[in-house]
Amino acid sequence: MPAALTAPLGAVPKFLVRYRCSPMTERIAPTCYRHPDRTTGLSCSSCEKPICVECSHDTSVGQKCAECARPKGRARVITARQALGRPSFQTAPVTFTIMAITGAIFVVGYLSPEANQWLLKTFAQANWLVEAGQWWRVFTVALLHGGFMHIAFNMYALYLFGPRLERQVGGPAFAALYVAAAGAGGTLSYLFGPVDQVSVGASGAIFGLLGAWTFVAWKMRNTPGGREMFNQLGVLLAINLALPLFVAGIDWRAHVGGLASGILIAWLWSLFAVGRPNAKTIRTVIGSGVAVAAALITMTF
Where in the sequence is the domain holding 206, given as residue range(s)? Predict the structure, then answer.
């Protein structure tokens, strides 16, 4: 949090007002530069003008006033209300685009059996077709789902874990992580699954998000909040990884591959991106690199 603004008594800006504490002393109470009737302890991290909560804009370098937070070029400003409120397309466009595309494909397949057959033949991960050279199926498998409960669970998990992660790492990096985890899950399923297996679902990608959050929680494990998040994610992962032992038809290989890739990507982000001025670009390159590696492994084996 930026420090409260102070100034010598002889050089008080016009947006500061005075009030008397006693006949012998005089103190200065900062007020919002746009709302002089509101005292505040906040100030812009760039120009140091006092700002109230309504005028505060959250940015990657702290709170800023409206002028300093104005978008430059293609930059996008997210207010405190947007960041702390319910996720929306404005705050997490990639997450909601993935949900919309996946949902639309499911609805088309549900309404038209012919379209559903075409979707399965074109995008499902049939291991014998992957072996024949159609390596892209380890990625497109994330577009299809086997029923309402299947897509509802995955999209709800994406809604829970996606928006906040996207806001923190950036849309392109989040998209790269999602695609890479889907590909890594599909690759592990192809390498260690039966050759006649057919798979659908975005579970590998969802487990990739869980893997990234698990690594973040582990890094914060010495704080009360981080320790609590790590314990909660541990229980969630244990339940989901154990499900294939009790429920037939679940591709546990895709889950493990997605989880491992999410942890790997988050670890690489912590090594090479944290604190760098081009951190978002580095994260995107790392996620894309893991996706390319999954494709190359699939094509090679």
Answer: 93-300
